[in-house]
Amino acid sequence: MTENNPAPSSPSPPFPNLGNVITTDDVSQKGTGSYKADYVNWCRVAHLLQDNCPGFHFHLTPSPDGSHVWKAPNDTAYVVGYFTGPNGERTPDFPQAVMDHRNNPVAYEKVTARDLTDTHRRALAACSAFTFGLAWQLWAREEVEDPHREEIKAKSTPAPKVKNVAAEDEHLSDSERKILLGLISEMSESSRDAFCTAFRSRFKLDSAAKVAPAITSKKHEAWIQAVANEYS
């Protein structure tokens, strides 16, 4: 199989801005409790694009050998997605790794048809957020607007500094805890188990202690942000 680079993208023309399109009615959830995660199903993404981006179509760039799978320098696999528009627009290339159910990259020689179709759907959703801003709130962990749009929700404020308390022991605000729990919810089950074991060890918790209630202070936030990529 040959290796090459994807065809260059066209200059960046103005594309539709779909940053305010989704509502809570578009959002689904997976997982339970502290590990619950919000997402927009790829079918819903496709439907929203049809309604709000008429004439734009998603594509995968063929690789030099004629398939849609590209080879990375370390022999793992990825695809390259882009949109074309009704007036000949071509959006920038968007690479998306081919990943297994644990979000680990799949070796190029081991990619199956199911791996490719799953990655196509993931690339569609991610490229829609990258190009048009569709569902960016979920990637940024912002609150999604209520579909009835009848009330404006107050923004949460950081917890005030407490006198004579070390910075690392300051309590997290509700929004800060929510972001951290969201990071953990994105981990695969095995990675999450490994993360929880490491957290208990780092902060000297009992081996059976629940991790989510223990995430309360700035020192926990700093540690989680430092190691999150190891368990993604």
Helix and strand arrangement:
Layout: E1 28-30, E2 37-39, H1 42-52, E3 57-60, E4 70-71, E5 77-84, E6 94-97, H2 113-132, H3 136-140, H4 174-185, H5 189-202, H6 218-227
Antiparallel strand pairs: 1-2, 3-5, 4-5, 5-6
Helix pairs in contact: 1-2
Structure report:
The chain is α+β, with helices and mostly antiparallel strands and 232 residues long. Helix content is 31%, strand content 10%. The chain has six helices and six strands, in the order E-E-H-E-E-E-E-H-H-H-H-H. The strands form two sheets. Strands 3, 4, 5 and 6 form a four-stranded antiparallel β-sheet that branches. Strands 1-2 form a two-stranded antiparallel ribbon. Strand 1 and strand 2 form a beta hairpin. The protein starts with 27 loop residues before the first strand and ends in a 5-residue tail after the last helix. The model is unreliable at 142-157 (pLDDT under 50).
Percent of sequence in beta strands: 5-15%
Termini Cα gap: 29 Å
Largest sheet: 4 strands, antiparallel
Spatial shape: globular
Amount of helix: 25-40%
Helix/strand structural class: alpha+beta
SSE ordering: EEHEEEEHHHHH
Cα radius of gyration in angstroms: 21 Å
Residue runs with pLDDT of under 50 for 5 or more positions: 142-157
Number of helices: 6
What is the average of the pLDDT values? 79
Query: What is the number of beta strands?
Result: 6
